[in-house]
Amino acid sequence: MDAPDHRGAPRGLADLTGGRGLVLLFYRGAW
Amino acid sequence: MAEFAERADEFARLGYKLAGVSADPPERAARLRNELALPFPLLSDTERRMIQAWDVYNPRERGGIAQPATAVVTAAGELAWFEREGMARRVKAEALLAFLAGADAPQARGFGPRFRDFLRALRFAR
């Protein structure tokens, strides 16, 4: 398994956490 | 996802953030995000780790992709909503907004460690 992107992860977590919660939209992906 | 994008500000007013998750690599996710002008991030689960753990894995296409599904994880670390779907998402943003508006405000204890571990493994579209 690839190592997490530590450069992006802290910023990413801050972008996702906070507030009342997170809505995750799993999608098939682009063609 | 377009409907959710259009109503992202309503989710924000209720205190909820949005994020898409697929097995696409970050570059492809970034292209899609730009094409659709999405106001929320697209996360790359290239290892299919979260996709498999959440049982939304379709191994029969393109080397394994996510099945459309919608989930809500509250700040208290609870799964408040989960709906797995077929070829396309059928959950309406309006229905989910109504549900979230009626939900009791969760105590902000932070996401659980396992969920935060998933989040760390996901890469953001560049």
Q: Gist?
A:
The complex is a heterodimer of chains A (31) and B (126). Chain A has 31 residues and is α+β, with helices and mostly antiparallel strands. Chain A is 26% helix and 19% strand.
Structure in words:
The complex is a heterodimer of chains A (31) and B (126). Chain A has 31 residues and is of the alpha+beta class. Chain A is built from 1 helix and 1 strand, in the order αβ. Chain A has one helix at residues 9-16; one strand spanning 21-26. The longest helix of chain A has 8 residues, at 9-16. Chain A is elongated. Residues 1-12 of chain A have low confidence and may be disordered. Chain B has helices spanning 2-6, 8-14, 26-36, 49-53, 93-102, 113-121, and strands at residues 16-22, 42-44, 57-58, 65-66, 69-74, 79-84, 123-124. Chain B is built from 6 helices and 7 strands; from the N terminus they run ααβαβαββββααβ. In chain B, a hairpin with a 4-residue loop joins β5 (69-74) and β6. With 126 residues, chain B is of the alpha+beta class. The model of chain B is unreliable at 105-109 (pLDDT under 50). Chain B starts with a helix and ends with a strand. In chain B, the strands form 3 sheets. Chain B has a 3-stranded mixed β-sheet. A two-stranded antiparallel ribbon of chain B has the order 3-4. Classes of the chains: A alpha+beta (31), B alpha+beta (126). The interface between A and B is large, with 25 and 57 residues.
